[in-house]
Design goal:
about 110 residues, 5 strands, binds zinc ion, five-stranded antiparallel sheet, binds guanosine-5'-monophosphate, alpha+beta, about 20% helix
Length: about 110
């Protein structure tokens, strides 16, 4: 379930501090350490799953929960709209190999990448 050398697993178990926004039994959300928009947070599964390439039909509910959490939390930040991004694999620009959904908001010109 956990990976010893994964920074997001360390954030989940508290070994690396984070600015936590949300947590339940399946998910966690926290602010990105290098925000590229006025609001920029990450939604992650507590289960260590490397990337969207590693999701399958057994993860449908988990994926649904992750996506539905985005508008809920965005609303808490007063955002009427936001952008989501899931980088998948090296070719997809993924740098941390514990799947995560980026949520950006609060800017007139949100970054596309
Ligand atoms: P990726 O490029 O994999 O889609 O995005 C990884 C994101 O994780 C980057 O936006 C990066 O700033 C963020 N990040 C990397 N290390 C940490 C960390 O230790 N804490 C937090 N809060 N964010 C991190
Ligand atoms: Zn992990």
């Amino acid at each position: 379930m956990m990976s010893d050398d994964c920074i997001f697993c360390k954030i989940i178990n508290g070994n690396i501090p984070s600015k936590k926004i949300f947590e339940d039994s399946d998910l966690m959300a926290f602010h990105d350490i290098r925000p590229i928009a006025p609001v920029h947070f990450l939604i992650i599964p507590k289960m260590h799953i490397e990337s969207l390439n590693h999701f399958d039909a057994t993860h449908q509910d988990l994926l649904g929960k992750m996506v539905l959490l985005a508008p809920k939390l965005a609303k808490d930040f007063g955002l009427k709209g936001f952008r989501t991004m899931i980088n998948t694999g090296h070719e997809g620009g993924q740098e941390v190999f514990h799947m995560h959904v980026h949520v950006f908001g609060g800017g007139a010109n949100l970054p596309k990448t």
